[in-house]
Design goal:
Layout: H1 2-9, H2 16-48, H3 53-102, H4 105-108, H5 113-135, H6 137-155, H7 157-204, H8 206-211, H9 215-240, H10 243-268, H11 273-315, E1 335-342, E2 353-360, E3 365-370, H12 376-381, E4 391-396, E5 399-400, H13 406-411, E6 413-416, E7 425-426, H14 427-431, H15 440-449, H16 453-456, E8 466-467, H17 476-488, E9 494-498, H18 506-519, E10 524-528, H19 532-535, E11 540-545, E12 548-553, H20 555-561, H21 563-573
Parallel strand pairs: 3-10, 3-11, 6-9, 9-10
Antiparallel strand pairs: 1-2, 1-4, 4-5, 7-8, 11-12
Helix pairs in contact: 1-11, 2-3, 2-6, 2-11, 3-5, 5-6, 5-7, 5-11, 6-7, 6-11, 7-9, 7-10, 7-11, 10-11, 15-17, 20-21
Length: about 575
């Protein structure tokens, strides 16, 4: 827990001054509140009972001043507390988000998307509320408790023993309640992940949900996740609500005992009426301080689970980092795989890629084909170092990819993934992800190469057409072509198309491949496809099977020597199906 506090505490940063001033003002407010009952006792004892109006006016004026000071310090404490807690929350979100950006795919695989969203929202909000309570209540309540207790013993030590006994008994009860509540809050925030996951999946795949008329199923799934959170909160809250009746019982018991004992002392002449009045005021201060502490403990208990989850993200170290003295230039687009073995998990027994040994020359166009799950995408992901090899080496431009600066390497390798992603913004803004300094003419040229210009020109706002989040207002084929154009704008030495023309017709696919051959002949191109027609014109073709290279050669060579490739070719030429339909998985 100490490490967690250190991790989170480092994000207070520029809000240290506010974090210090908040408790200072809270303590000053407590001092003002503690003095007021003494002044009230003085008015009763030396003013009202003696008929001294001057004393009443003088001490009354002092009470007004102290009340004003108390109000001012309370306002300032609230102001600085709000600034410190919201600033702390802002820094936590920023630090987590920035660290997430450094994650490799293997790091991201450890956290679900919904889990990261919960950490950035609900968990940070819990920490923000807890931090404000720590700065305000956890400073104000102990100070008020100590000051009120000290002043009560100063007024009458005999009666004040009642306070001490009440504090001890109440403290034990509240501690027991908080301890039992902790185990429930520990589980609640994990279940928030499931709730967010349900919402995220439903919104993202809303078209599929409606196409299959699965709205009721999704409602049930959401209701179940929501119900689980409800049950855990009910269990926790059913314990927390016991705070109030226990507190009220203690308060009234103390008031009755103090009134009874104080009345006897007043009758006996050993206590004044004003002293009893101040003791009753201090009684409320002490017991309300305990109530505030119990509330703070509950909030802190809730935030412990959130703190650990946030620290987990902040302390996660990227698996893939820059070397100490990185290479800052990629010589050419040559790629070599030297006895590469790879697994997504270091401790995994089964390898995804096994002993891959290939030499690719600069400017070559390499086709890749294989059954679903044959590790085609896993192989090309190693080129731009989205993952690191388990054993062996991947070289680009004659250098191991682990020697390059990550930004330099990835700026020279353009990847169009299977799942194409467009961001909310205009088409031009999406295209400039490939090159933020690209002119409109360069963007149009890239779209012409990717056969995207023809449909963009038909849109009402053309290249200024707004793309909704995820590209929901364009078709799958249009989305793919925009993504290909975006990749071309990088003018890379290596271009990877990971089944990225699957949603376009064969004629458009042929046009795109022809444009690549004519306009970027010096770029090394990897084309992953399920259609033989998409890769038959490639310089060489890799046939993948179960994480291994089953064949490597030209279209003609593979037709003669590779049974898998020949079967796929014949099945597609005859129109009887594609690779996966032939049961070659």
């Amino acid at each position: 827990m100490i490490e967690v506090l250190k991790t989170l505490g480092a994000q207070v940063k520029e809000y240290k001054k506010d974090s210090i001033l908040t408790p200072v003002f809270m303590i000053l407010e407590v001092i003002c509140e503690t003095v007021i009952p003494l002044l009230m006792a003085s008015i009763i004892n030396d003013g009202v009972e003696k008929g001294d109006m001057n004393h009443i006016y003088l001490v009354g004026a002092a009470m007004v001043v102290m009340a004003g000071l108390g109000l001012f310090t309370g306002i300032m404490g609230g102001k600085y507390g709000a600034r410190a807690s919201t600033g702390f929350a802002k820094n936590l979100r920023k630090a987590m988000y920035e660290n997430i950006q450094t994650f490799s795919f293997s790091n991201i695989d450890k956290f679900s998307t919904s889990g990261l969203v919960t950490r950035l929202t609900t968990d940070v909000t819990n920490i923000q509320n807890a931090y404000q309570m720590i700065l305000r209540m956890c400073m104000r309540a102990p100070a008020s408790l100590i000051c009120a207790m000290a002043m009560a013993f100063y007024v009458n030590a005999r009666v004040s023993v009642i306070y001490l006994a009440a504090v001890i008994i109440l403290g034990i009860i509240l501690f027991a309640l908080v301890k039992r509540t902790m185990k429930y809050f520990d589980q609640v925030f994990r279940r928030y992940d499931k709730l967010n996951e349900s919402v995220q999946e439903n919104v993202t795949a809303i078209r599929v949900v409606k196409a299959y008329a699965r709205e009721e199923h999704e409602k049930e799934k959401f209701s179940k996740a929501s119900q689980n959170i409800y049950k855990m909160f009910v269990k926790a809250e059913s314990l927390i609500v016991l705070n109030n009746p226990v507190m009220m019982f203690t308060v009234y018991t103390c008031i009755i005992l103090i009134s009874w004992l104080g009345a006897n002392l007043i009758v006996g002449g050993s206590m004044k009426t004003g002293d009893l009045s101040s003791l009753l005021a201090y009684c409320m201060n002490i017991l309300m301080s305990l109530m505030m502490l119990s509330m703070a403990f509950v909030m802190i208990t809730m935030s412990i689970a959130s703190a650990e989850r946030i620290a987990e993200v902040l302390n996660e170290k990227a698996d893939i980092v820059n070397p100490q003295h990185p290479v800052m230039e990629v010589a050419d687009g040559s790629v070599s795989f030297e006895h590469v073995h790879f697994s997504y998990r270091r401790d995994a027994q089964d390898l995804v890629l096994k002993d891959i040994h290939l030499e690719i020359r600069p400017g070559e166009t390499i086709g890749m084909i294989g059954a679903t799950g044959s590790a085609k995408s896993s192989l090309v992901n190693l080129i731009c170092r989205l993952y690191d090899v388990t054993d062996g080496a991947v070289k680009v431009g004659g250098r191991d990819v682990r020697e390059y600066d990550l930004d330099v390497l990835r700026s020279e390798v353009s990847v169009v993934l299977q799942k194409n992603v467009l961001f909310s913004g205009t088409i031009l803004e999406n295209l400039r992800w490939g090159n933020q300094d690209a002119t409109e003419e360069e963007c149009i040229h890239a779209c012409q190469l990717a056969c995207a210009d023809e449909f963009i020109q038909k849109l009402p706002d053309k290249y200024n057409t707004y793309i909704e989040q995820g590209g929901t207002n364009v078709s799958g084929g249009q989305k793919q072509r925009i993504c290909i154009a975006r990749a071309l704008l990088k003018k890379p030495k290596i271009l990877i198309l990971d089944d990225s023309t699957s949603a376009v017709d064969t004629a458009t696919d042929a046009k795109i491949r022809k444009a690549f051959a004519e306009v970027i002949p010096g770029t090394t191109k990897f084309i992953i496809a399920q259609r033989v027609s998409s890769i038959s014109g490639c310089d060489r073709i890799i046939v993948m099977e179960n994480g291994q290279v089953n064949g490597f050669g030209t279209h003609e060579e593979l037709l003669e020597s590779n049974e898998i490739y020949r079967d796929v070719y014949e099945s597609q030429i005859s129109g009887s199906g594609d690779f996966d339909e032939e049961g070659k998985e």
